[in-house]
Amino acid sequence: MSRLDTSSGEYLARREAMLAKLAELEAEQAGAVAGGGAKYVERHRGRGKLLARERIELLVDPDSAFLELSPLAGWGSDFPVGASVVTGIGVVEGVECVIVANDPTVRGGASNPWTLRKTLRAADIALENRLPLVNLVESGGADLPTQKEIFIPGGRIFRDLTRLSAAGIPTVALVFGNSTAGGAYVPGMSDHVVMVRERAKVFLGGPPLVKMATGEEADDESLGGAEMHARVSGLADHLAADEHDALRIGRRIVRGLNWVKRGRAPGAVREPLYDPGELLGIVPEDLRIPFDPREVIVRIADGSEFDEFKPLYGASLVTGWARLHGYPVGVLANARGVLFSEEAQKAAQFIQLANQARTPLVFLQNTTGYMVGREYEQGGIIKHGAMMINAVSNSTVPHLTVVMGASYGAGNYGMCGRAYDPRFLFAWPSAKSAVMGPAQLAGVLSIVGRAAAQARGQAYDEEADAAMRAMVEAQIEAESLPFFLSGRLYDDGVIDPRDTRTVLGLCLSAVNSAPVPEPAGFGVFRM
Amino acid sequence: MITRLLVANRGEIARRVFRTCRDLGIETVAVFSDADDGAPHAREADHAVRLPGTRPADTYLSAGGIVEAALRTGADAVHPGYGFLSENAAFARAVLEAGLTWVGPSPESIAAMGSKIEAKALMAGAGVPVLPSLALPLPEGSRAGAADGLAAQTRDWPYPLLVKASAGGGGRGMRVVREPGGLVRELESARREAESAFGDGTVFVEPLLERARHIEVQVLADAHGTVWALGERECSIQRRHQKVVEEAPSPAVSPGLRARLCEAAVTAARAIGYVGAGTVEFLVKDDTVAFLEMNTRLQVEHPVTECVYGLDLVGLQLRIAEGAALPETPPEPYGHAVEVRLYAEDPAEDWRPQSGVLHRFDVPGAGTAFAPVRHGLRLDSGVEDGSEIGVHYDPMLAKVIAHGATRAEAARRLAGALARARIHGPVTNRDLLVEVLRHDAFLAGETHTAFLEQHGLPGRPAVPPAVPLAALAAALAQAAANRAAATVQAALPSGWRNVPSQPQRVSFRVGPAPAPDGAGADQGVHTVSYRLTRDGLRADGLPGTVLVGAAPDAVVLETGGVRHRFEVARHGGVTYVDSPLGSVRLTPLPRLPEPVERLAPGSLLAPMPGTVLRVEVKSGEPVAAGQVVVVLEAMKMEHRITAPAGGTVAELNTAPGRQVEAGAVLAVIEERE
What we know:
By secondary structure, chain A is an alpha/beta fold. Chain A has helices at about 10-35, 40-45, 50-60, 115-130, 145-155, 155-165, 185-190, 205-215, 220-225, 225-235, 245-255, 295, 340-355, 375-380, 380-395, 410-415, 440-455, 460-480, 480-485, 500-510; strands at about 65-70, 85-90, 95-100, 135-140, 170-180, 190-195, 240, 305-310, 315-325, 325-335, 340, 360-365, 370, 400-410, 425, 430-435.
């Protein structure tokens, strides 16, 4: 049960710090929502068109939830935050779908390298979780100056569409505007295609290119207009009178999929006994100070119930069973940052138990990595860490990861970091990820430099060392922050801690669109 | 003794008579048309006989069919109710000839009063004051020559005039004529309506006494020579010559005037040897008292007299029919009673009758039904939840009656009950009735037959002030319903977004749906825009509004520290929001409407289902703005469909006798350039 003292100065200070970070997050997200800015938004609206998010709002069921993915994609790059595309999971006619909507107010909806990564990530989510994919298409094609980073890997977009289809996962394209050249294969590869009259333009080559290539004079409409595709080429299955009509037809198509989720249905849902609002005051600003993850679990778990596994063994890692929005889950949460041999073995055993019970796992990260030092190396920390990483890697149940605080070193791997393909990974604004802490990293560089100077018989320049350490520390700190990592698609989004239960509940529902996976082929190894 | 009684009627009056029968231990027999199959009156009678068909002539006006039904069921008496055959002497005679007891005056009395023209003459002879009838050598048909002759003869008459059906009642076949030019047309129209409604097209003309009071005296006479005059009722507040608010006693009748009226009424009854319950109607203006007519039956508004006198008039009718004698004098009246007639009609749209399913009908606090009440509320209703309000009969849903020690008390009680009533379905005149009952002029007793016109009622349909909060409540209730019905992610917060980009929006059409021809009390579209944030509700335009709780059927909102509970019901695509702030009808507009086929400009649509009576133009003919193009008969009323602007008849898609659906394109007028 909770021991959190919400009147303590410590709690209030942590809360204050978290709120400040959330204000920054809100500002960054507002930038993404603003799209190409007022001028382009006005111009778009002036053409009687809906914005990307307006299209999504009208596509999804009234009053249902929408989880936007990777909203900060492109953060810290030369491209606008959001990467000119909106992706997410929404419910259409009672069917959870992955929705991908180009934002034509941002440079005409052109794809840049981050757009590509964000779009590919959305397709991965659709495939892994068996979620029908709905594309709301209006894109001017590739951002030509960065074509070298887009053209070759970008082919995957079209490959993914047809692989989804082959896997029995329907794909729908609602074409609102330009979808030309390579983009023409989005409707081309989709199962169901709707085009908006007088708006959709779908062709491999537009009038200038055709003129250059063959000398033929042709207009937009005859090359790729919606009427033409609906009546002549057959590329469009439905001709929509306007954008609203296209969305209406899109909803009708999804209704007609007769979609059945193949996973588990949730049980009764109970709200936590403790206020999720208090999650703001749990993580210390200084991540060297540990916090009890049970305070988090009781604020996200159904009825605040948590059935702990091996509470007396490897106490630096908390493991146990809970329910979240009616779904049973196994939880692994770092309690004191460091992972010792016991924690690693406990984790490996627990992961196997979850696989045996086919129960999804939730990783709550706050780890500084596996313990180092003579005693621990000799005690086999690498072997034991390897067991945990082995278990995480080959576990077949869905994994959901939340980075609450630190995520350093191989702890990031053992606790199912991005490279371990959790179905979803979200970070709190308090999160930090790097190979090690900035101070440690700078210190390591300093020690190595000093040793090198010594070897060369040179005097070590202490002043330069201090400057180097400060610079490296600042750089690593900046590059371990969640906006930066989210910008590079190393997570699926930075979330408000108070939304953790909602986000995980939504993801657990989404992962259960796919069948419960088969367990691995061995009995559970006792550790 | 009567042991089994057939009521030759439907709706609330049939139920009213049945209630007394049950009280007295008399078995009941209902008759019902196909349109009333399963109606409450047919269900609750001990025996029920189907009268095949829906047209009144085949059913409730079929004297033969009803007498046959009475014989077949072994009934020994027939009560005619009001309307239909209640003042049909031939029917009364047929009942008597079949050896059954007729609950009503003798066929001779009915006949004497049945023709308003003759009744006036009879009354004048007996010394009862009457208005002069204008001699009218009525030409047959409307041939141009005859009409011209008539116009010449009537040029000097004291306009405005009132054309009335001699056999009429309920405002049918009645027309106001303000200038000589309109007389011929109105006469024809009144004659047709009278013919259709009463089977007798005779009409007459008398001067219109404007802004007079309609005051009537209830009489009750036994076969032994006792005649009671049970005081007066005032029924001045009328629309289209149809009473809507009735009360007893009249606020304007002094004891002296009352004595004069009662004396005149008793004189009238005695003049024709009247037996049974009847009503003598007068127009009263200043010192002028003029006999209007005598209704030889129970009146719609009899409950106000029952409440004031504590009498069961139907019970007394039955006893008189059985030959019993009335006590020498009636009981003393006490207090004041007011009745309103709740109609399925849209006062803002020229009182257009409404049809459709009455999903919910609940008038709270009714102490009695069909029986006198003291210091309380009485509900005489012909409908119940789920009743279908059809196009075949008068669209009266119910009568609501309040009694109190004073007039003000009764009016307040009645207005309060109406305001709290839950009426979900066709548009009704409820709001208008509440407005009247709370109107200063009404409360001051300043009632007359042009009351509604004088006070501009119904007012221009303003958007009720309750709309913003009611619409917000409707949206939140709908959201709660959507969440409750969700098949996935059901426990997630309503409309949750990790990256909020816009509020949740729901648009409603306020008020009744526009008629298919586009006309209608369009109170506009209201868009609710709100977000449910971590810190609670943020409703655009309603700052500081707190959401206390939302369920699919009820929402509690707090504004300015005051909580309001909104009950929300959804039926057939319409959301009904009831709260102490008022009842609001909202039609949620689809987020993604289907693209509509555009109608040719100038299309004239049928405003409601009905039968085409006449087509007054030919294809290709020029028409002037306002010219009648098609006359439609629906709900027993003639509806004129006129050209909205001058032009040419480009298309004509209909012919007399044809049944049309609401929204059918009847004609297309090509506007003149």
